Amino acid sequence: MFSPVPRRPSEQTCAAWLWRRLSDDGRHAYCPRCGADRPFRLRRGDIRYACRVCEMALDPRAGTAFEGSRTPLGTWFVATAMLREDPQLTPTALAAEAGVSYATSWRMLRRLRELPAGAFELRAGLGDEPGREPSTRVSLPSDDLIADPKLTSILRGAATAIVARGFAETRISDIADEAGVSAATVLHHFRTREAVLLAALRWAGAVATMQLSEELDPDASARDWLRKSVGSILPADEEQRAEAVLQLECWNVALHEPELVVHTEDIARRWRATLAELVQHGIDRGEFSTAAPAADVADLIAAALNGLWPKVLLGFEDYPRERCIELAETLLDTLLPAGAARAAPPVAR
């Protein structure tokens, strides 16, 4: 329990703090439209900053864990402070303390935990607070990653190029062409192709998580959440297929680049942790009747899925997606028999 709950800063305070990631002095930043450093001003009634020369607006959330989220920045900062205090923070506890739904808290924690220190995306000051000096830049393998408006387009372009050509045949120039930027811009963020691949996989996973949370009913049962999450791992559409291809490419690269194993293992570990959170949520609500620890159940589910999704991706005739869904749901019902479900406590939204 968190007592007191971290104070929720205003949106403008959070935005000003994030802006320092783009601007060393708080007044000037690189303007993509002008192609040069320009003075910027905070737009009236907004959290974006406008170039005083061309009026192009930059969002200080760009390249951070908060980009594209409808959740207020103040709520995100409360969540990061709570997660710093308790690394084992559960979605249920965050929902109760931060005043958001379980669906929102699950999505927030999943996104934050996908950004470990020393990994791939700007952590946006996880563990810091507005008013303090921001943390140092988070490092990629052999490089420093900074927030930049072009980052999302680079990662999207990298995913497109790698899925279409395969990692071995993808050059930095191919990624630059897909992203609509120069090769120098790509190399500004990532000095190696391996770093781009890992970051693209993280980005694809974050997009999938956001879409999944938007599709799920916040009041759905834990079993429905698990089924939807499991189904999202068995690729059905182009975006899911792209994430699966990137995962296989990462595994292949890790075979020949042992230092990459720690990063691919971290991705797998965080996925198992997400499954364990969902299982524990169902146990706490009385939906599941099992004596096995949630982490052990999650390990079994993850192991089964790791045997199924590559077959779906490759189109094995003996393992069509529909059959794999049935196998996965049978496993869920076997591992997690129904309990005497009780109503979940009301959660503020």
Automatic annotation (TrEMBL):
Record-annotated DNA-binding residue ranges: 171-190
Coiled-coil zones: none
Protein name in the entry: Transcriptional regulator, TetR family
InterPro entries: BetI_C, Homeodomain-like_sf, HTH-type_TetR-like_transc_reg, HTH_TetR, Tet_transcr_reg_TetR-rel_C_sf
Keyword field: DNA-binding, Repressor, Transcription, Transcription regulation
Superkingdom, taxonomy of origin: Bacteria
Annotated HTH tetR-type domain residues: 148-208
Gene Ontology MF annotations: DNA-binding transcription factor activity; transcription cis-regulatory region binding
Family matches, as Pfam families: TetR_C_6 (PF13977), TetR_N (PF00440)
